[in-house]
Each structure stands twice: as C-alpha cells, then as structure tokens.
Amino acid sequence: MSAGVDTSNSGKGDGKVRAKKMNLNVDMAPMCDLGFLLITFFMFTTTFSKPNIMHLNMPPKVEIPPSNIPEIKTKNSLTIILGKDDKIYWHQQEQQDLNASTLIESDYSKEGIRKEILRAQKQADQNKFTVIIKPTDDSSYKNLVDILDEMEITNSDRYGIKELSSKEKAVYKEKVNN
Length: 178
Description:
Layout lengths: L2 E4 L16 E4 L2 H17 L31 E6 L5 E4 L12 E3 L6 H11 L6 E6 L5 H13 L5 E3 L4 H12 L1
Parallel strand pairs: 3-6, 6-7
Antiparallel strand pairs: 1-2, 3-4, 4-5
C-alpha cells in the first residue's frame, strides 16, 4: 500500500461523537523509484558537449638534404608575421634585404592583409604562390586562427607555419618598439 489512512477507533465509548483524527501515512518509495528512473533516463540520453577544436594537418617531418630543397622566388611568396595586440606584419623580401621600413603593418580586415594576399597572388606564378605564416611569442591563438581563415577566404592552398628567423625577430622588435 503506497498511502494509507488510519481509521481505528479510540475505543473510549463515553457516548460523545467526536471528529475522527486521521493519521496520514505516505509511502515515499514510489517517488524515490521515479526519481532514480528520471536520473537514469537523463544520464543515458544526455549528449555531452563536444570540444570545439580545429584540426590542423601537418606534413610529416622528413629530412631533406639542403640541395633538394626547392627555391621559392620572392615574388611567389608572402611572409606574414603575427604580432602582439592583434597586429600583423608582412613582407616580400629576401632575409638580407629585410628592415623595419620593408616590414609593413596591416590588420585582419578585408582591406588589410586579405587585400595584400590577393595582390601578391595575382603577381605570382600560377600554382606557385606560397604564404609563410610566422607567429611570434606575442601573438595569440586567435591570431593564428584568423590568418588561417584568411587562407581559406583567399583560396591560398599553399601555406606553411614556421618560426621567425633571427633576422626577422630583430626587425620585428625594431618595428614594434618604434
């Protein structure tokens, strides 16, 4: 019995009619069963949030002799340096010709780095245009995601991520400090 009413007579028999006091007994076992059934239902039917990550496919690391590394002409490449405070710098220079005046500051807007990537793509040999992305220690993960989005928007299939050379680090620091 899940609930019951105690209707037993007090049995005094003094002749007075009194209102019967009722004691209610509520059995809580079915409510506990229902609670556990609901908890079990939600545990089995809940979909946990999946992590929102971006997969980055990196080429396998292969040792290539320096004589077999193909040379990329400067007109076919664009180097992008990701700086601090969401700033971005780019150049199309040989390492020895790079200085603070040839390292050009831009931003992530449509008229910023996207315009420069599209301009460099038009001037490059077809299917040889390569973008070299070089994040600094000052840049954030968001900056890298934003520039990878720009690669997708500009249909730049050939791009790579590389560390800054010592010359580029020096020029970048000189440019940022001015």
